[in-house]
Amino acid sequence: MSLITPDSFVTAESIAEKVKSGEWSAVEILDKYLSQIEQHESEVHAFNTVLEDEARTAARETDKRVAAGETLGPLAGVPVAVKDNLCTKGIPTTASSRILENWKPPYDATVVQKLFTAGATLIGKTNMDEFAMGSSTENSAFGPTRNPHDLSCVPGGSSGGSAAAVAAGFAPISIGSDTGGSIRQPASLCGVVGVKPTYGGVSRYGLLAFASSLDQIGPFANNVRDAAIVHEVIGGHDPKDSTSISEPFPSFLDGLEHGVEGLKIGIISELMGGVEGISPEVIEKTRQAASVLSANGALIEEVSIPASLYCLSAYYLIAPAEASSNLSRYDGVRYGLRVQGETLAEMNINTRTDGFGNEVKRRIMLGTYALSAGYYDAYYGKALKVRRLLAQNFDEVYSQFDALISPTSPCTAFKLGERTSDPMTMYVNDVCTIPSNLVGHPAISIPFASGNDGMPIGVQVLVPPMQEALMYRIASTLESAKNDE
User: Fold this and answer.
1) What digits encode the pLDDT tens for the residues 171-199?
2) pLDDT number for residue 9
3) Within-domain flag for 381
4) Domain count along the chain
5) What are the residue ranges of helices labelled H in 153-279?
6) Which label site among 169, 171, 174, 253 has the fewest CB atoms less than 10 Å from its CB?
């Protein structure tokens, strides 16, 4: 069963324009999305929390400001869904974990503050794999999210709730986080646009950390232009984030329609069959996307990034190692769940045993092992060498090419429960997206085609750091070609 009704969607940009002009009421817009949620959320489970009352209050305030003639931001009256690992003041922020089930942060994440400043209306907090550890949103302590295109399938992960919310028409835009592909992979599986910005281009202040050197926050949208608008809103320097880039980014909207003529774009050969698990139809659709770019004036060649063959192994050492440190703060003492014990150590153990799910425990143990005495150089140290080698590979390729393309996900959406018993099979879902996280570069997934099963297939565009304007140009060309079919 599919919930997708393409004619029901309007762009976030048009909502904001018509709300600011007074042609549309922010309350009426919100009611349309809340109605869609009321009808179908029980089937999809995109949300952990729907903020109906808070959203209505915000929408009424927007309409008052319009009536008073105030100048509003670029997302005025636009409902937005936010992944449940971004802090929202006084609103539950759980990371889909029992250990934070009743926790309400005392502050908003910088990204959330920027959305409010731009006039957006927070409609809810979305479901996710617990602490962003997963590729299917089946690891949530509160139950799985389903793919709106086929309710028997996964939406991808870990930002599956955010992707599904946009695909199902619950919100025109949403926010996710991407540590190894957690925005782009669900975007591909749900048939929406998903963006991982340059590392440091969007503040991580207020994001519940998984792997701090890899995590990045980015938007989901139904079209490339909306994604670029939201990216401009949430991006920029933040002194509260020590990894935040201080230099300004160029506008992502300028030149969006300038096309790709004269650009030199490479197809990453290792992700076109060089690694196992990428389906032939996904490879075929990616080649079709390359043909579209070629027909529009780009020069297309296959390129090799040899270190990409080792990215999956390196990532699943680096990310769990960082997670084992970041998640040590959930000890039953400072905040979140506490399960009593006769001693402090027993209380820590009881809290973590009851509070963390199996996948989180698995990664904490893997990361702790990789960092332990006698194994650090053999595992974690080697993974860091692969990361450095990968960065060198990208630098060499980008000295000759403007951008790269590849598949986003190795397959279309798979059935719920199909891969939960085999973690290694699940981990392969990230093989195409992990390289960008390891080197901190931006990438975008654009819905481009459908598989033989009728499910969406996304194509990924990769560019050098801080070159998002170019990335959006290429993505817009692919989007236009798909819309012209």
Assistant:
1) 999 999 999 999 999 999 999 999 999 99
2) 55
3) no
4) 1
5) 160-167, 184-190, 224-234
6) 253
Give the count of beta carbons closer than 10 Å to the beta carbon of residue 101.
16
**CA pair distance 344, 341, nearest whole angstrom:** 7
CATH of the domain at 56: 3.90.1300.10
User: Per-residue confidence at 39, pLDDT binned at 50, 70, 90?
Assistant: very high
Does 346 map to a domain?
Answer: no
Range of the domain at 460: 6-263+402-483
What are the Cα distances from residue 427, in Å, to 37, 269, 359, 417, 431?
31, 20, 11, 14, 8
Let me know how long the chain is: 485
- How big is the CA angle at 382 (ends 380 and 388), to the nearest 5 degrees? 105
Catalytic residue annotation: 83, 158, 182
The pTM (predicted TM-score) of the whole model is 0.96
As to burial, measured by CB atoms within 10 angstroms (0-12 exposed, 13-18 middle, 19+ buried), residue 200 is buried
Q: How confident is the model at residue 6 (pLDDT cuts 50, 70, 90)?
A: very low
**Token digits of residue 465:** 């750091």
Does any domain span residue 204?
yes
